[in-house]
Design goal:
By secondary structure, the chain is of the alpha/beta class. It contains 19 helices and nine strands.
Length: 410
């Protein structure tokens, strides 16, 4: 299978971590917040942007994208942002990554960034009263300029990421999403898309937000691990089940990153039970969280060798994602495809290869038109599932068909 654009391990963690933190801000967006992404690499920026746009589609929130074509256009962009920017719950994305060997052109772009940031700082009160999220994507050399010329805005920066490039490497990883290696083919872990009750007491809401944003290692060690456990118990005792579930999912994410799959599986099992009850009462609000927790639980159970349990979890996740995708294809077809990939893995581990082939064929059918429309977000995922499909065909003794599938990969 031909190599496709991929990430090394460190770069994958950088991009995945950036998306995980950005996603949490998007999901909690009910007023103005400011984010900054510094990268010199268009492919990384494109992956994050297309995932942010899909996130907004999922939440029926507006997403407005500005990419100025010239430095002069960029310097005057603020008027358009004020007039056309996304309101609270939405996201306005401003991306200006200039690549030029011409010194004068490079200087013009850097000057345009400085002018734009100064104007943004001066008009911050109006922007904060009208916009939702505002994400600025700039080259790394703009960071010190932003700190110098937009000091007031910089002081309230909610999200900052410095993202490494995406490079060519092993083709067994999918671009733009957190991907773990299972015992069979690549397993698509759904980045947690969770929220908690909006009417939490202010002090509790602040603590929950801090726990959700904490570093993975810190969440597994005192004092934060004890604080998280205590807050989960409080949420369950006081009737805030979505808050308890969200904290359990975040703890599971941290545990999995650090290789503690047993803890991750235990947390996700508890979260899934909570989301199952919540989804029965309010499917529109909580079925996505239920599907995500079941998908990731299946992967963790597979890593622990608990294959039958993992199969049951992913079968329930696929059913949930299928219902969601029928109601909102644009938002949930990618998740359905990822869950079908994982279903194929679980079936293959149990020797049920024909059923695994049917699942991965459905994933290919879903991703093919998505990759044609948004190649930066989906082309690599399509290549990965095609590779899995070809491997299964080989295992079934259908080598000619396997080769035809591999030739379709780009």
């Amino acid at each position: 299978m031909p190599d496709s654009r991929q990430r090394t391990s460190d770069e994958a963690q950088t991009l995945d971590a950036a998306w995980g933190r950005l996603q949490r801000h998007l999901n909690r967006a009910d007023n103005f917040w400011l984010g900054a992404i510094f990268t010199a690499h268009l492919d990384a920026a494109t992956t994050l942007r297309e995932h942010a746009e899909l996130n907004c589609q999922r939440r029926s929130a507006p997403f407005v994208f500005f990419r100025p074509g010239t430095s002069a256009e960029f310097a005057d962009l603020l008027d358009r942002i004020e007039a056309e920017g996304a309101p609270p719950s939405g996201c306005t994305w401003v991306e200006a990554l200039h690549h030029s060997a011409n010194a004068a052109e490079k200087k013009a772009w850097d000057s345009a960034w400085a002018t734009f940031l100064q104007a943004l700082n001066h008009r911050r009160d109006f922007l904060r009263s009208t916009l939702g999220g505002l994400v600025l994507v700039a080259p790394p050399q703009v960071k010190p300029v932003a700190m110098r010329v937009s000091t007031d805005l910089w002081s309230v920066l909610a999200f900052l990421a410095e993202v490494a490039p995406i490079v060519h490497a092993d083709s067994r990883r999918a671009s733009g999403e957190l991907v773990e290696q299972s015992t069979s083919s690549p397993a698509s872990v759904q980045p947690p898309v969770v929220a908690w009750e909006e009417n939490l007491p202010d002090d509790v809401s602040r603590e929950v937000s801090a726990l959700m944003e904490a570093a993975d290692q810190a969440l597994l060690e005192p004092p934060l691990s004890a604080r998280l456990d205590a807050r989960v118990r409080w949420a369950l005792d006081e009737g805030w089940p979505a808050t308890a579930a969200a904290l359990l999912v975040r703890h599971a994410e941290a545990a999995a990153v650090l290789g503690d799959y047993g803890t991750a599986a235990q947390d996700l099992s508890r979260a899934a039970a909570l989301y199952r009850r919540l989804a029965e009462a309010n499917p529109a609000a909580y079925q996505p969280d239920l599907a995500m927790s079941l998908n990731n639980l299946s992967i963790r159970l597979g890593e622990l060798g608990r294959r039958e349990e993992g199969l049951a979890a992913i079968q329930e996740a696929v059913e949930a994602y299928r219902r969601l995708a029928e109601a909102n294809p644009a938002a949930y077809q990618p998740d359905l495809a990822a869950s079908l990939n994982n279903l194929s893995n679980r079936l293959g581990e149990l020797g049920r290869r024909e059923e695994g082939l049917a699942a991965i064929q459905e994933a290919v059918a879903i991703l093919t038109p998505l990759a044609a429309h948004l190649p930066a977000a989906f082309a690599e995922r399509l290549n990965v599932v095609r590779g899995t499909m070809a491997d299964i065909l080989d295992q079934l003794g259908r080598a000619d068909e396997a080769e035809q599938v591999r030739q379709q990969a780009t």
